[in-house]
Amino acid sequence: MKTLVTLVFSLILHLSLFSNNSFDYDRDEVQRRIHHLTTLENVYKSNALYSFDDILLLSGLEYSKVEMYTINNLQRSDNGSIALGIIIGAGGCLVLYLGCLLIGYSQFFFL
Amino acid sequence: MIRYLFIAILFSVWSAPLQAQYYFRMKADISIKEVSYDGINRIVLGKVYYDIHHKKIVYDITFPEKERWVLSDTSYYLFKDDILVERNLSVIFPEFSIFHLALEGHLEDYGLQDHPVIKVKDIEKTEDGIIRTLRPTAEYTDNIGPIKLLTKDRQLKATLFYNVSERLMSRQFFEDYTVIKGVQIPQKIVQFLYPNPEFHDTEIDEDQYSLIQTTLSNIQINRTDEEFLYNYPIPD
Lengths: 111, 236
Description:
The structure holds two protein chains of two kinds. Chain A is mainly alpha-helical. Chain A has four helices and no strands. Chain A has helices spanning 2-18, 27-46, 52-58, 65-110. Chain B is mostly beta strands. Chain B has one domain (21-230): Lipoprotein localisation LolA/LolB/LppX (outer membrane lipoprotein receptor (LolB), chain A, Clam), CATH 2.50.20.10. Chain B has a 13-stranded antiparallel sheet, with helices on one face. Residues 10-19 of chain B have low confidence and may be disordered. At the A-B interface, helix 1, helix 2 and helix 4 of A face strand 1, strand 2, strand 10 and strand 11 of B.
């Protein structure tokens, strides 16, 4: 009798555990749910300029948006400084080049 | 006599490189993305360090903010600027982390092959692989539920953890295995965590779960630099 009860119990347990195929999952569904986080990761890694609005759009995330905004602004200011340096540098070179050209031409004309 | 001695020395020198490789530490870039059933989503990026001797999992987080998490024994430590700001109990034991198990070569059986409390009770061959059901010994049945492991081609593919009421609590899938210096390690771990109804006042549907996707990249084995991070100092 005891053996029979154990057998029935094992069978019920076995069926309850194997009734749903727990070793499988919907990979598309997982990718869909994780997608916006992946997008945010790419944005972060790309070190691109992005706005607070972009972050709000991407997020719905728990961690402090103020902190993210700070990180965002830091990145923006870093990138901004580099960009400004490049613009000033390039502008300076252009002015120098045009100046040389002007001097060259003026010398040519006045000679 | 001298000839035998010479042969012995020759063999001992020659066999040195043939000794089994000893893997003791691992470093990797890590990203953890969590889509929670209660609508809270998180993303964390950084690096993870693990040394088999120190048994500390050290996360050097760079996003969303710079901080370090240390898991040691049964404790979780949070450091900011190397100052301890939080200490809590942790349910993750470093010895059962994929880092420890992969370095020791025990990931296939989740380190439970010769466990004194949890024993293999059933083995089933399926198209997906071999399913092993483990159960605690009689004195622990009130505390530990059954565990199922799915292995295929000598790789752990999935684990299922149940509570004592046989309710599914966690499903983990180990994907994109890579081999670094002989260490097999999955680069993607997808985990479904099911809320325990015992800890909630409201009704919990069975299809409610949190989804956590962990990815590892740039995995490096047995590096000897950054010693400080492998053995990050924690208070006694």
